[in-house]
Task: inverse folding
C-alpha cells in the first residue's frame, strides 16, 4: 500500500527577507510599473505596501492551512502559470463544491477599485476575506486560521509565522485583519508589464504584420460610412492596461440567469452586467466569461462575431443606432489577426517570476 | 430534462427579478451644502431646459431635462459669484451605472463663465430615454466628441482638486 508523505520546505524569497523586529520596522515596498499605466492606483492608507508584508502575503496566499482540512490555498484557484486564473470553468472549494463563477485573473489589481465579477468588494482586503470564509470555498473562519497559524509555530517544517507577522506589522500578533492585509499586499504587486505589447509600447519591439493588423482592428471603431473597419474592442478593453473599470452586458444571454451587477445595486438595468476584465495574459486564462462558457479565445471571437444576443440591458457599445446587437461578422483573417494581437499580451516573465511564486516546495516520497 | 432545465432557469430569473425592484436615482454628493437624491419625478418638477447634441453618426438629437447648474445650485454648490478663488479648483465627477466616469471643472458648467448649458436629460425628442441610455444621461452641447454625453448617470460628486 502506497503512503504519500508530504513535506514543505521554503524557497528563498524573491526579494530581501523580513526585517528583524526592533530594527527599524518594515521596509516600504518600492512599486515599479510603466508610466503608461497611470497613477490611479489603490493602496489603502492603513495598509501600505512593505517588503515584509508582501512576503508574508505570498506565503499566506499559497498556504493550504488557510482552508478547512488544509486542502486548498488561494493559489489553488489562482494559478501563476495561468495568469493567476483557474483552468476550470468553476473552481472547486475545499469540499469539492464548484464556485458560482469563474475564478478571475489576479493581474494588475493595483488599478482595480471594485473586485469580483459584480464589483461587490471595494478593496482587495474586503475581497480576500470572502473566498477564505465562504463555506464552500476555503471554508474556514478567520479565527480558525489564526489558531492554525499560531499553532504552526510549533512545527519546525513550517514558516515561523509569528516572526513574519512581527516583521510585517511590528508585533507577532496573528490576527484575521493582518492575514487579509498581507494577502492584499501580495496581490497588489502582481503587475504584468513585460509582454511583447509592453516592449512595443516602449519602442523595443516591432509588430508582425498580423499583430499590427490585429492591434489596429482592436482599437479602431467600425465606421462603414467612412469605410473604416474596426472592432471597437478597445472601447472597453482600453489603453495599455487593456481594460476599463466598467460593467457591461456583452450579450451572452437574452435573459441573463446570473444577475451580475444588479445583485449588488438592486437595479434592473444592471442585470447581466459584469466587470470588464483586463486582457493581459488572456491567452493563459481560459476558460472565459463569468461562467467560463467559452473554452478558447476563438470561441470568444465567434461570440462577438455573430452571437451577441439582444436584451434590455445589452451594453450600448454593442448596439447599433436602431438598438440592434452589433455582431462584428469577422472574417477568418480578422479573427486570426485579433488572436495574434491577443497573444501579444502574454507576459511569460509574469508567470515565472519567483517573487510571485509558491514559496512552498512540495517533495513527494512514496513508501511501498 | 430540457423542460426541467428551462423551468429552473425561469425560476431562477424570477427569484432574481424579485430582488431588483429599486428605481434609479441620481445622487449629488461631496462639496455640497445639501446632498440630494433625485428621482425621475424630482427632475420633472424642477426648471426644465433643452439641449441638442450629435450622436456618434453625426445626427443631431434634441433632449430635455434639467441644467446641471440648476442641480448644483439646489445642492448648495459654490456657483455664480461664489465660483472664485479656491472654488475654481473644484470639479464635478460624473459616475454612470456601468462605472464610466467623466470630469468637468465647475467653471465649465457655470453661466458666469460660459453660455453653454450642460443638462441632465431624461427625455429625447419628447420621449423617455431608451433602455441602456436612461433614465438619466448627460448632454454636453457643442463637443466634437460625444464621450462626455454619458449614459445612466448615477452620481454627481463635487470634489476639490487637492494637489
Result:
Amino acid at each position: 500500500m502506497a503512503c504519500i508523505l508530504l513535506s514543505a520546505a521554503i524557497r528563498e524569497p524573491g526579494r530581501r527577507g523580513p526585517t528583524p523586529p526592533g530594527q527599524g520596522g518594515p521596509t516600504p515596498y518600492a512599486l515599479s510599473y510603466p508610466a503608461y499605466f497611470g497613477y490611479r492606483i489603490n493602496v489603502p492608507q492603513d495598509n501600505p505596501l512593505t517588503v515584509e508584508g508582501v512576503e508574508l502575503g505570498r506565503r499566506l496566499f499559497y498556504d493550504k492551512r488557510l482552508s478547512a482540512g488544509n486542502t486548498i490555498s488561494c493559489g489553488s484557484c489562482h494559478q501563476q502559470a495561468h495568469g493567476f486564473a483557474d483552468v476550470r470553468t468553476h473552481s472547486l472549494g475545499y469540499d469539492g463544491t464548484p464556485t458560482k463563477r469563474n475564478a478571475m485573473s489576479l493581474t494588475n489589481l493595483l488599478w482595480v477599485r471594485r473586485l469580483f465579477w459584480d464589483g461587490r468588494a471595494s478593496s482587495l482586503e474586503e475581497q480576500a476575506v470572502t473566498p477564505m470564509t465562504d463555506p464552500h470555498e476555503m471554508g474556514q473562519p478567520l479565527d480558525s486560521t489564526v489558531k492554525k497559524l499560531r499553532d504552526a509555530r510549533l512545527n519546525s517544517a513550517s514558516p515561523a509565522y509569528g516572526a513574519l507577522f512581527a516583521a510585517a506589522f511590528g508585533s507577532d500578533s496573528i490576527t484575521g485583519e493582518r492575514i487579509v492585509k498581507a494577502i492584499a499586499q501580495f496581490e497588489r504587486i502582481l503587475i504584468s508589464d513585460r509582454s511583447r505589447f509592453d516592449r512595443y509600447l516602449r519602442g523595443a519591439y516591432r509588430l508582425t504584420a498580423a499583430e499590427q493588423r490585429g492591434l489596429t482592428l482592436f482599437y479602431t471603431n467600425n465606421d462603414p460610412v467612412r469605410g473604416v473597419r474596426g472592432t471597437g474592442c478597445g472601447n472597453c478593453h482600453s489603453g495599455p492596461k487593456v481594460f476599463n473599470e466598467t460593467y457591461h452586458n456583452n450579450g451572452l444571454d437574452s435573459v441573463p440567469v446570473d444577475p451580475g451587477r444588479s445583485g449588488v445595486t438592486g437595479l434592473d438595468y444592471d442585470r447581466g452586467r459584469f466587470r470588464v476584465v483586463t486582457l493581459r495574459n488572456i491567452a493563459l486564462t481560459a476558460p472565459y466569461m463569468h461562467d467560463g462558457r467559452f473554452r478558447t479565445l476563438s470561441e470568444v471571437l465567434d461570440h462577438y462575431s455573430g452571437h451577441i444576443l439582444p436584451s434590455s440591458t445589452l451594453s450600448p457599445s454593442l448596439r447599433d443606432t436602431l438598438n440592434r446587437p452589433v455582431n462584428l461578422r469577422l472574417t477568418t483573417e480578422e479573427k486570426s489577426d485579433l488572436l495574434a494581437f491577443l497573444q501579444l499580451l502574454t507576459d511569460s516573465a509574469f508567470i515565472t517570476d519567483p517573487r510571485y511564486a509558491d514559496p512552498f516546495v512540495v517533495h513527494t516520497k512514496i513508501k511501498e | 430534462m430540457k423542460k426541467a432545465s428551462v423551468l429552473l432557469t425561469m425560476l431562477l430569473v424570477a427569484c432574481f427579478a424579485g430582488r431588483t425592484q429599486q428605481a434609479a436615482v441620481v445622487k449629488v454628493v461631496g462639496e455640497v451644502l445639501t446632498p440630494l437624491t433625485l428621482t425621475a419625478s424630482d427632475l420633472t418638477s424642477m426648471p426644465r431646459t433643452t439641449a441638442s447634441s450629435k450622436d456618434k453618426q453625426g445626427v443631431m438629437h434634441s433632449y430635455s431635462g434639467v441644467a446641471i447648474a440648476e442641480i448644483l445650485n439646489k445642492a448648495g454648490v459654490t456657483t455664480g459669484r461664489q465660483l472664485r478663488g479656491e472654488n475654481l479648483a473644484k470639479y464635478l465627477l460624473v459616475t454612470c451605472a456601468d462605472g464610466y466616469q467623466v470630469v468637468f471643472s465647475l467653471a465649465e458648467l457655470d453661466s458666469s463663465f460660459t453660455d453653454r448649458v450642460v443638462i441632465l436629460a431624461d427625455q429625447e425628442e419628447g420621449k423617455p430615454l431608451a433602455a441602456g441610455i436612461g433614465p438619466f444621461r448627460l448632454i454636453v452641447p457643442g463637443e466634437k466628441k460625444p464621450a462626455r454625453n454619458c449614459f445612466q448617470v448615477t452620481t454627481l460628486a463635487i470634489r476639490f482638486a487637492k494637489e
Observations:
- The longest strand of chain A covers residues 3-10.
- The beta strands of chain A are 3-10, 247-248, 274-275, 360-367.
- The interface with chain B takes residues 114, 119, 221, 225, 244-248, 255-257, 259, 262-263, 265-271, 273, 275, 312-316, 319, 321, 323 of chain A (CB under 8 Å).
- Residues 1-22, 363-368 of chain A have pLDDT under 50 and may be disordered.
